[in-house]
Amino acid sequence: MGTTQSDPPIGGTLGIVRSLLPSLIPSEQRVAVQFVEHPDEVALLSAADVAARAGTSPATVIRTCKSLGFKGFQHLRMLLIRDSGVGRARNPQLDAAASREWVPAYFEASVQQLSDALGALDYAEFDTAAMAVARARRVLIVGNGGSGPAAQALALLLVTGGRGCEAPPDAVIQQLSARALTADDVVIGISSTGENSVTVSSVAAARSSGATIIAISGYARSRLCAQSDVVLVAGVGQPRADVYTAVAGQAVQLLLLSALSAAVSRATGAAPAEVFDQLMDLVSEGEAQVNPPDCPE
After folding, report:
1. Which of 151, 157, 286, 291 can bridge 261 by disulfide, Cβ–Cβ 3.0-4.6 Å?
2. What pLDDT was estimated at residue 117?
């Protein structure tokens, strides 16, 4: 969010702050951490108060807000006040000893994280990405490390929806495939942090081939996003990661990929149900060949 966009959806302000926090300089990061960890308190403080808490100056607080894409500190305060009805306090039940108490709290905390995840998503970019995938000659999906399963999941979703694609799990094949692309093709790079060097290298190879690059990441300013033509940001990254935050982050990634696949199906006019039925028929035939019924004597 390099420039001020329209106000984020209710509950989405902190999603923007989280997505950009790693790209800030250290003094600005300290200020942003105050925003994320104490949003209800910051909404009632002055820039000088926040500066004192962060060990910096009021000018740095204002600069931080502008670096995050807001008009200034007052603009951020108004958005935090607007979002104050969306509860974000850490549930003390998460620290309970009994599973009957902390497991429900775990689910509730994850759901709360999901509700904040789309604050940084640009819906115009989302529509552009869906149309690009729908019209592409070839679609290459690249994801490595923790984002590898998400890349395979997106490939399955697209194929099930009638959009052919390829998602090689091997890093060398990713590179070779990327170099063979043309300006008529699309690469979807998936990385929660946007900094996976293997994924970034494949994306760079595809860029040199003239392909359109779509980045899907939890952070708006990263090497992956810098290499991309279209950037989709959604995530729940936090300065302090709880276990439920990591799980929610994976869920956000998969939900966004599922939504992108659905948008592609809408753009192509495909009938996913029919394709899925055909896929199930193929699976059934394959199982019958592997496990044939006993032959009559």
Report:
1. 157
2. 72
